[in-house]
Amino acid sequence: MNTMTNEDALKAASATELAGDNATYIESLYEQYLQDPDSVDADWQAYFKEYETGNDALHHAIQDQFLLLARNQTANKGGAAPAGSGSDTNCMDPRQMGVQKLISAYRRRGHRRAKLDPLQLQARAPVEDLTLEYHGLSEADLDTVFPTSDFNIGKPEATLREIIEVAERIYCGHIGLEYMHVTTSTEKRWFENYMETNLGYIKFDKEKKKEILERLTAAEGLEKYLARKYTGVKRFGLEGGESFIPAVHEIIQRAGGYGTKEIVMGMAHRGRLNLLVNILGKNPADLFDEFDGKVMPEKGSGDVKYHNGYSSNVMTPGGEAHLALAFNPSHLEIVSPVLEGSVRARQVRRNDTDGNLVLPLVVHGDAAIAAQGVVQETFQMSQTRAYTTGGTVHIVINNQVGFTTSRQEDARSTEYCTDIAKMVHAPIIHVNGDDPEAVVFAAQMALDYRHEFHKDIVIDLFCYRRNGHNEADEPSATQPLMYAIIKKLPTTRTQYAQRLLAEGVISEGDDKRLDDEYREALDKGEYVANSLVQEPNEELYVDWSPYLGHELEDDWDTSVDIEKLKEYGRRMAAMPEGFKLQRQVQKMVEQRLAMQTGEEPLNWGAAETLAYASLVDEGFLVRITGEDVGRGTFSHRHSEIFNVENGEMYVPLAHLNDTQARFATYNSLLSEEAVLAFEYGYATTVPNALIIWEAQFGDFVNGAQVVIDQFISSGETKWQRVCGLTMLLPHGFEGQGPEHSSARLERFLQLCAEDNMQVITPTTPAQIFHALRRQAVRPIRKPLVVMSPKSLLRHKLATSELEELANGKFETVLPEIDQLDNDKVTRMVMCGGKVYYDLLEQRRELGLDHVAIVRIEQLYPLPEERMVEEVQKYANLEEIVWCQEEPLNQGAWYYLAPHMFRIFGPQGDQPRVTKAHIVEPVARPASAAPATGLPAIHVRQQRELVAGGLGIEVDQLK
């Protein structure tokens, strides 16, 4: 790169490009330079470098210099600079540049000097670039008048002292704004205007201040009431963070004013009971009954009171709005993607493409947001096609301590707990929780930003815990200095009430009346939430009643008229005019058309896509997400087709006809936990839909084990939340090693109870067709876990006829398919998945007509009656073998063994079993890993497995 001297720079400044009528051009050129220095000529790079501020400040920091240069050029046009004058002094006062840099530093770094900690425990390092000396200024310059440029001080020039006073008030008060990491200039200017318009003063009228005090009274009042009534009982109270309640109240009311119809909230324990009572309108009497142990779930296990969700309607300036608080386990941040999924579903239902009608509000703890990986995953989802919800408002209840860990070097590696949000350039508003007006102002700014730009924003509410992690803790044992200060510190409400008394906003009588009225309302068990709608508009709710109260039936008609199936096939094969396919894809489309019109047997992909076509035609939304689901990891789905000439994507299933329901398929980011949680939240919100998450390999599902344990398997029994989510988990031992063989079938079966979910191992295209249709058309919403095949996607024997789709249903048990002499059968092999075809081929090759092979296609709920029917067909049956590919300590055996012994063994109690049978497993040896990674060992184990299943020696195999 060429370099320029100051003299050269001044010559460039005197050139035509810097003439007064070209100042706008120079401004845009500098903006371009800030984005990418190499995008401008080398001479301009060198020139701009002379004014480099060492940070990412916008061009307005030097804009005055350009205009000044332009004016000088215009004034001296045609003549040289005055003789004897120095070029630098002729062009500008260098102190002016220092002032502009100082203003930029306040905008960029003022938050590091803001008064954020109510306890004043923070020992913050001096901020060098907020000093005069750093910018070539001194105290001697304090009374010098400088142009204020675009610093919104209300006048074109001011003394340096006044500029600093205003900058301190705006950027170093009780609000510390981090926004200079935001990448767009428009957003940065928006924040500057928002913060600087009132010169750092927060101007609320008397009524607004009274409203804030009333909500603070409610927040503190509930905690004091519960502390007296239930001393020492865990409630994870909000003491020390009471400003959270007026902040949420402000967000809801302001969002309603923008036309928002639903606000969906998620949060962990701290302050949850307070939110339930004072914001969502839960009756305090109901909460007291829970504390008293008077509330018992009508069914299921129930959950602790600070995990429960709630919903209600409130009145806002824009009309009635629906509030929903998501159920949340103790896994804290896992609720974030669940909530986002629920929000996305609501937005789709309302055709809310910009996210204005449904608002997500997520509440974090400081320790959790900084440490839990699902936070990163959820932030990363925020602007992606499949998962965006138009921006989320995040509130961090920053206790400055996680349970007992308060040392920053132990809790995180970043200065702020909120630094994780910078990964998506989310602005962060740090605010002192003991200044309720600053907190409400921060809430307004956050909501306004989200509405304007539809991106995430974070409020970091600096507060403290007055009573420790929970009410049974003694926090001074681990934080003695912190709690010595807390014990002497007046509550937030007390401080604010004194402030309003001093301002004359309220009287002593007003203060006492607010406190007394709230306590009396609690004593009477009255509702204490503001603006609660007692008779809510039911149109704001989704009616789930058609999907409740049903027995989990397996026998369900899922047939489809064969002519309709053929028509779906033809429509899916019809590409837009001029749409050129890749050669292999073109061949696949042609082959699939032959299958779907009955000319050839169907493979897996052909049957699966027909299931989706039939469902969207019948009005069921279909949504499929996961890594590589558009094509399918194993290249079997091809729901997304691409034009080889321009890369345009076409989704045939989304263009069947004008009246069909929505079909959406999205390749997800490389996440399991957050994505699966998102889809769970989506599926619990939209009943008339088939929501599918597919793992790239089934093994990867263990990255989302929290979602499976805390939501999918137990959400209904804990919270009465029904969910029809479908999980497709590629599973099968094919020599691909320990990480690409097992979807951990045993873990799902261990979690099965109370008809909580369904686990199937389908082996034919017709079975997956009917299983997917059954999941949607049957008015029952239970999670469906599919141990999905890999090699069977194109196996020569794993095919179905179109008539099987048109006339059949999902079969929980598939009987022996060959014509055996039933009287000769002495051995029955029960199995599921790919191993069936290995057994079948060898049985046929060897002519072992005494061995019947029966497929158990549904493992939970276990179809015992159907299993008995198959056994009863063979009068001379002696042995029943369960054959599985997985090691003995994995797979289905440990789940099945007690059932099979009970049904078929000597201790059997099934009345239709005429005699006891030998029941034994055949499996790979028990193993710590799911599978071997060595091909030779895999082949040997597979041969031993098949031989053992058929009851022969390995050397007898073909």
Automatic annotation (TrEMBL):
- Please list the residue ranges annotated as the Transketolase-like pyrimidine-binding domain: 602-795
Q: Name one GO biological process term.
A: tricarboxylic acid cycle
Q: Which SUPFAM superfamilies match?
A: Thiamin diphosphate-binding fold (THDP-binding) (SSF52518)
Reported cofactor(s): thiamine diphosphate
Say if the entry is tagged with keyword Oxidoreductase.
yes
Q: Which GO terms describe its cellular component?
A: cytosol; oxoglutarate dehydrogenase complex
- State the family it belongs to: Belongs to the alpha-ketoglutarate dehydrogenase family.
Task: Tell me the protein's name.
Answer: 2-oxoglutarate dehydrogenase E1 component
